[in-house]
Amino acid sequence: MNNNSVMIICGRESVFIKVMVQKLADIGIEAFVCSVNTNVINGQWDRAGLITCYLDAGDQYDSGFIRFISDKLAATDKKMILIGEKENSTHLLMEIPERVMFKYFLKPLDNQAYADCVSSYFKNMSAGAVKKSILIVDDDPTYMGLVRDWLKDSYKVTMATSGIQAIKWLASNHADLILLDHEMPVVSGPQVLEMLRSDKETAGIPVVFLTGKSDMESVMEVVALKPAGYILKSVQKAELIERLNRFFLLNRFE
User: Fold this and answer.
1) Per-residue confidence at 254, pLDDT binned at 50, 70, 90?
2) Domains identified in the chain and CATH numbers
3) Model pTM?
4) What is the pairing mode between strands 177-181 and 133-137?
């Protein structure tokens, strides 16, 4: 589990930053300041469980730095709080993926609201409330409901009854994994996979096929599409949960 510490990335350590650090210290949360320097941030990254980017008036991060932060957050499963004025925050909000953005505060900052937000984040982490998100795509609502009931205690589960519905949902939401039915009417599983891979926003989401056919020819047809894996629909609850837990464990840094 991540440390209950906050890295505050800022251009300069102003009095406002010192107040933020003290406010967090008052509720027992360590905060430390890092300059906008990739080497410095890299060296201190493992100390933090949550990242705060504080933008002073006129501050602008270039695309390379934003990409660096986005990749680090995604690779280590951490979240970011952004603090800034609307004028200089828009670009960063557009570039940072929604799945790694925890909260956005406009300046002038309400320090108590910020401290409460940070405290809530770490409490949720401790309670396991920050769950991986799984999207199940299947034209059989009964089967989806069964799988959702199996997984809902361990994961945040969303269901889509068609590939088109799944694509529309992903336009404004994020999934850490997609369980995709291989055989669906209108738009098949392989066609959905192709659409996902053709869009840069969804290309990186791992897809595991659900298939009702276990014969060698059918399995090889599924494997040929190079998904993140495949699961037979005859799988039982304990095995499915164990396989998903193992998948996320093995892929936690990807």
Assistant:
1) very low
2) 5-127 (3.40.50.280), 133-250 (3.40.50.2300)
3) 0.54
4) parallel
